[in-house]
Structure formats: structure tokens, C-alpha cells
Amino acid sequence: MTVLAQQCSVSGRMPTLFWNHGGGPMPLLGDRSQASLTAYLKGVAARLPQPKAIVAVSAHWEAEKVMVSTCPAPAMLFDYYGFPPESYEFKYPAPGDPQLAQRVLGLLGAAGIPAGADATRGFDHGTFVPLMLAYPEAKVPVVQMSVLRSMDPAAHLAIGAALAPLRDEGVLIVGSGMAFHNMGVLMGGMRGGGGGGRYKPSEAFDSWLTAACTKAVGAERSELLSGWAKAPGGRESHPREEHLIPLMVAAGAAGEEPGRVDYSDWLMGTKVSGFVFGG
């Protein structure tokens, strides 16, 4: 069953968000295994204040230091393979925002966080797939940002904290990844036609992650999330954690504000949840 948070109150401060972007382009293709996630993403905009711009932290862009796209008109980056031809014809013509990108770089620099500009990076599927569903008009400017190749949770929580002032400027900070990302298990679910069985370690980790995100704030939440690998089902859910790390940025930008479950369901036999913080 999908679980949705109540609409965020318009307080002048944007919430932050961690959403699951699904398997490659599958949410855009009507794949039945992604049906509830697709429906959730289509309803995101109705539950949130209208952003002036979006900073999208993508699990599919890794770098030695934080990289920020300064491209005014990002192209499409089809960073998946083996899907139908129409999967490589999607268009998402949302503009970039070089001025906002420079603001991001300035905030990171002021916090002592190494960062660089990329003037050519296009929208990868961690960005364009959920945005095509959530903001299909493609009118909200989008600045894409990388995660660190180090995958250090504390470093990404600090990145989020550095970007927190953007929330008072109408900017929606989105971490785009997956609460569960073990490809061996997920491929098994796809081969099973959507997954009749349920992978128990994912349920254990999802319960822990939900508690960490919703029952703790500030330093306590950061400490819990930094130790995610020791959580029940942690490494079974994330043999490599690039899809979890964007959550750290969203949570770090939330500071002392609480988190709420915004989505929760079984996806290809695995339990996944998404969260909204503050607002």
C-alpha cells in the first residue's frame, strides 16, 4: 500500500525530499512493477509548495568532488541500456539555472566543501525520469548535482546542511535514488514478473530507515544515518550505497526539522520508502 504524507504547509520554506526514481525508464513505460511508484511521482507536485527551482542530487552522477551542472539547457543523458527504442527518445526540456548553480557552488565553498562546475552535463535518468512524472510541464529550472565517489554519509549530510539556505529561496532540494538497490535481488523480481515473493532484508532495512528519518532530527538523525551499514538488512539492501547517499543530502538540509514518510510500498519484491523533510 502506498503511504503519502499530508500536503506540506506553505511556510515560506521549502521542504526537502528523497524520492525513489525506479528502475531505469520503467516508470515512464507503464511497467506494472512500477505502477504505485509512477502514481506517487505523478502526485508529488500537488502535495508540495511550488518551487522556483529544483536542485536534484542524482545517484547516477559520481565525482571526486561535488559537481554542479551550470548548463543553461541540459541535454538528455540516456544512461541505461536494453530498453525499448522509445526509451531513448524522451525529452525533458526544463531549463538549467546557471545563476542558481553558482549560488550552490558559493554555499559549498563557504562551508569548505570542494566543488566544481560542469557546463555540459545533461539530465541523467535519476533526474529526468521522476521529473517527467512529477513536473511534466518542464517549466521549473533544474540544477543537477553529483554525489561524492567516496560515498561518505557524513560528508553528504554536511553538503545538505550547506545547501539549507536555498530552502528559504524557494528551491526544492531533491535526493534522487532508491531506498533499496541490490541489483541481483531486483533482477530476480523482474524475472518473476514483478516479484511474488518478498525480500525480508529489505523490509528490515526499510523499517530501520523509516525510524531513522521520522523519529530523530538534527545530530541524532545524522548519527543514525551515518551508521546505516550496520542497520538490519543494510548491506543486503545496498551492496554499494550510491542510491542511498542522495538521502543524506536531503536529510542534512532538513537540520532540526522532522521527516515524514511520503511513499512506501513493495517494488519488485522489495520494500522501499521515500521521505519529505520539513516544509
Notable characteristics:
279 residues; Protocatechuate 4,5-dioxygenase, Chain B; single chain; 9 helices; 34% helix; 6-stranded mixed sheet; ferrous iron binding; two-stranded parallel sheet; alpha/beta; zinc; Xdiol_dOase_suB; Extradiol_dOase_DODA
Structure, explained:
About 4% of the residues have low confidence. The protein has a single domain, classed as Protocatechuate 4,5-dioxygenase, Chain B (3-Layer(aba) Sandwich), CATH 3.40.830. With 279 residues, it is an alpha/beta fold. A hairpin with a 2-residue loop joins strand 7 and strand 8. Helices cover 34% and strands 20% of the residues. The protein has 9 helices and 8 strands. Helix 1 crosses helix 3. 50% of the residues are buried. The strands form 2 sheets. The protein has a 6-stranded mixed beta sheet, sandwiched between helices. Strands 3-4 form a two-stranded parallel ribbon.
Q: How many helices does DSSP assign?
A: 9
Strand-pairing-aware structural class:
alpha/beta
CATH superfamily: LigB-like
Indicate the mean pLDDT: 94
Number of strands: 8
Secondary-structure element order, N to C: EHEEHEHEHEHHHHHEE
* Unreliable residue stretches: 6-10, 190-195
**Annotated CATH architecture:** 3-Layer(aba) Sandwich
SSE order and pairing:
Elements: E1 16-20, H1 35-47, E2 53-63, E3 66-69, H2 98-110, E4 115-118, H3 125-134, E5 142-148, H4 153-163, E6 171-177, H5 183-191, H6 200-214, H7 218-226, H8 234-237, H9 245-254, E7 259-267, E8 270-277
Parallel strand pairs: 1-6, 2-5, 2-6, 3-4
Antiparallel strand pairs: 1-8, 7-8
Cofactor: Zn(2+)
GO molecular function: ferrous iron binding; oxidoreductase activity, acting on single donors with incorporation of molecular oxygen, incorporation of two atoms of oxygen; zinc ion binding
Family: Belongs to the DODA-type extradiol aromatic ring-opening dioxygenase family.
